[in-house]
Amino acid sequence: MPAVDQHPWPQAAAAVRDWLAGPATSGDLAAARAQMGFSLAWHIVVACLGVGLPLLTLIAEWWGVRTGDPSYRLLARRWARAMGVLFAVGAVSGTILSFEMGLLWPGLMGRYGQVIGLPFAIEGIAFFIEAIFLGIYLYAWDRLPPRVHMLTAVPIIIAGVASAFFVVCANAWMNQPRGFTVRHGRVVDVDPLAAMFNPASPPQTVHMILAALMVASFLTASVYAVSLLRGRTDRYHRAGFFIPFVLGAVVSPVQLVVGDWIARFVADYQPVKLAAMEGVFTTSSHVPLTVGGIAGDHGIKGGLEIPSGLSLLVGFSPSTVVEGLNQVPPAQRPPITGTHLAFDLMVLGGLFLIGLGVWLLLAWWRTRRRGGSDPLARRGTRLFLWLASFSGLAAVVSLECGWVVTEEGRQPWVVQGVLSVRDAVNPAPGLMTGLWLVLVVYAAMTVATVYVLRRLAGERPVPLAPQEADVTGYPVV
After folding, report:
1. pTM of the model
2. Kind of pairing, strands 419-420 and 413-415?
3. Where is 305: in which H helix or E strand?
4. Residue-wise pLDDT tens digits, 101-135
5. What does the radius of gyration of the chain's CA atoms come to, in whole angstroms?
6. What 3-state class would DSSP assign to 284?
7. For residue 348, which phi and psi values (nearest 5 degrees)?
8. Which of the residues in the chain have pLDDT under 50?
9. Distances (CA, A) of 179 to 168, 190, 307
10. Residue 9: which residues within 8 A CB-CB, separation 6 or more?
11. How high is the pLDDT of residue 371?
């Protein structure tokens, strides 16, 4: 019989303890960045649905009350259920993010929490307002008059937009830190309002709120586009497609203008980020606009160049000087290939969505000219719906790529020019364990969310409940 202290289980446990208690490594920094990036990428999609889906639901309910058409009331009630599920899931993922901010980045929150704490506090208030009125909205369908019930959705929409606004203000501060002074190594003279309303706040918040509306609209529309392709052409599915798709088509060209605004802001305030986005290595004029390609030693290789294109976009003149990456040391340069390709994919996805909106507008105009009323009765409808079924994916990819540009383009800084990522990370060991745990949690949440949403979408008609008599008899095919 072997001695007790030679048993493999105590030895394995001791090895695990030694691994967890060992000093932090560069792998821990990579794990912290991966965990935060993955959590943000997951949460932001749910957050966008939380901003846009209440507006879509209110539009459907308003149209149903106005016309008396049960198909719109049925849409509103089903979307409201999905809204409730997504709010609960978003609350969980948002709570995880709030813990990660403190656990993974104590160098940031410990030193600058007093500077950027105000927008997080106001966002918490907006969250509770949204939760309160969401409960009222979900459980008061026939307990309130229809118009009063619709009014209860307005605070949900306002609170959702406010939450996005204040959180993005905090991120904008990381790009343009304001509202504090560092004296003798200490943060003093804190002005939370100046920090929150920094120069990056206006373009970033508007850009994000519009992106949220696009993601919610096109994701919802893509679901019904698939149903239409499968022959479910009743009024319910057509309305489910047109309401969100039209909203997304209206917002998309506005986003293009706002995107130009924020690109010019980056050129003025974060020239190194712009240089990484466009792969500009040397400061010069007549800088070409490069589409695609990967970074080489002295520039982008394999991309399509438009002569003087970037100089024209930045300053409306080929002679406009664009700062290059040579303005900063190599250690302070962002990842070039990833930032550049993410920016190109974001723009490509946006142009694709704008093109779909123009297609539908032209189809509607030609149908009206010929005395018709259904733009989906024209030739090419199946091709349009097939492309529209990918609109949700395109919107999500554009969203994620936009955040890659925002965050990677600021590297190696967590707060631009003030605090590096390496100095902000938790020096404690074992961060890789947290990464694996978060991956498991998010995998479980993804499966559960998709399962519940599919069950809600598959029910026909709406499940019987005392307050839902107006739509229980509506056939959904």
Report:
1. 0.88
2. antiparallel
3. strand 304-306
4. 888 898 888 889 899 999 999 999 999 999 999 99
5. 25
6. strand
7. -60, -45
8. 1-10, 12-23, 461-467, 469-470, 476-477
9. 16, 6, 41
10. none
11. 64
pLDDT of residue 294: 86
Distance, CA of 390 to CA of 411 (rounded, Å) = 32
Nearest CA to 404 out of 475, 318, 333, 345 is that of 345
Q: How far apart are the first and last CA of the chain?
A: 70
- In angstroms, the Cα distances linking 269 to 13, 73, 297 are 52, 48, 26
Residue whose token pair is 């105590």: 10
> What is the residue type of 56?
L
pLDDT of residue 464: 40
Helix (H), strand (E), coil (C) string for 25-81: CHHHHHHHHHHHHHHHHHHHHHHHHHHHHHHHHHHHHHHHHHHCCHHHHHHHHHHHH
What is the DSSP secondary structure assignment for residue 304, as one 8-state letter?
A: E
d(CA 246, CA 249): 5
How many Å apart are CA 152 and CA 165, to the nearest integer? 21
Beta-carbon contacts of residue 1 (< 8 Å; ≥ 6 apart): none
Contact 195, 178 (CB under 8 A): yes
Residue-level pLDDT at 465: 42
Contact predicate 296/356, CB 8 Å: no
The predicted pLDDT at position 466 comes to 38
Q: How far is residue 172's CA from residue 166's CA, in Å, rounded to a whole number?
A: 10
Q: How far is CA 403 from CA 42, 343, 435, in A?
A: 12, 9, 20
Q: How far apart are CA 40 and CA 230, in angstroms?
A: 34
The single-letter DSSP state of residue 322 is: B
CA dihedral 369, 375, 379, 382 (to 10 degrees): 170
Q: Which residues contact 172 (CB under 8 A, 6 or more apart)?
A: 198, 200, 201, 204, 205
Q: Which residues contact 96 (CB under 8 A, 6 or more apart)?
A: 39, 43, 438, 441
- Would you state the pLDDT for residue 20? 39
Angle at the Cα of 164 from the Cα atoms of 163 and 166, rounded to 5 degrees = 65
Question: What are the tokens at 75?
Answer: 């849409």
Rounded distance between C-alpha atoms, residue 246 and residue 76, angstroms: 16
Cα 117 from Cα 67, distance rounded (Å): 46
Alpha-carbon distance 40 to 148, whole Å?
36
